[in-house]
Amino acid sequence: MSASFLTPDHQALQTRAAEAFAPLDAGALHVDDAGLASAVAATGLSPYLVPAAYGGVTAQVEVMSLCVLREELAYRNAAADSLFAVQGLGSHPLVLAGSEAQRQALLPRVAAGEVLFAFALTEPDAGSDVANLSTRAERTADGWRLSGQKRFISNAGVATHYTVFARTGEGPKGLSAFLVPATAPGFRVARQMELLGEHPIGELELDGCQVPADALVGEEGAGMRLALSTLDVFRSTVGAAAVGMARRALDEALSYVKTRRQFGAPLAELSAVQALLADCAVELEASRLLVHMAATTKDRGQARITYEAAVSKLFATEAAQRIVDRCLQVHGGNGVVKGFAVERLYRDVRALRIYEGASEVQRLVIARHLLGPR
To answer: Which of the residues 72, 123, 198, 356 is marked catalytic?
Structure first.
């Protein structure tokens, strides 16, 4: 890994993470989603998801640390990386705007791996168009009643707590966030969804779901800002996961071409193969540098990194798709055989260009930044 943006502490974390995550390699580990969540928690690295005051490691959640962790975890197991990332995504609204009671009750348990969060934003008719979501929250005598559907919710079915975004008013300023336990009356996981890659994900139904008054996270009407601020932090870490998958694909390809012989010589001696590997290395290094630039910018105190996060996510995820595709290609027929790591990576990497803002959305974000106010 390039070390240009890594402090000695981050380099030490990289080494620790590589050792801790090694047993989670998808090629050797066969557990259900709940077992995988427990295995991720057992690595002892969840404290990096919360501030030190609630059991974390640093005073504030460090985006660079999350990027180091996600690169190492995605290198080994995309499903484990997703569980870890969504634990952070779902609990981060509490870090940003939760009441002290909410933070004290749950963030230490996030750090200890005792609870598992999900981030319930997307709906059947509101994906990239978040402002169009229709799940509603209405005040009741003793709290709130939530009604609606959520779709493509990662950690659905294994999460103990869901951060649910619902409409309490009209327009973008009419969204609010709520803390919903999986045991809340009127809440259920409607179905689990099967994706291209292995990933715990599903649809939620909130049928008059009852939560207490103190389930509101932050101020009423501040849900859109809270969702975007959370995504601001975690989008660059998606780029880090892409780097991890691309690095694994390149390592698999390097190992394969050194031993696979064609036309009387190892594949590694073919100039076409060498050029392909070189292109992979260049895009991999560029991706990591962009991810680390975004993370460093945030950790140095810049309030919003919407542009930097969009640039890093767009480039790294698109590059990872190309890198994995090339590395599968050098495996020939073996590349599409189940059991080969590159075949698994080919399925796993595709989702990164969609979730937490599709590539097309990132291009819009970047263009709007360049064009400025109109």
So the answer is: 356
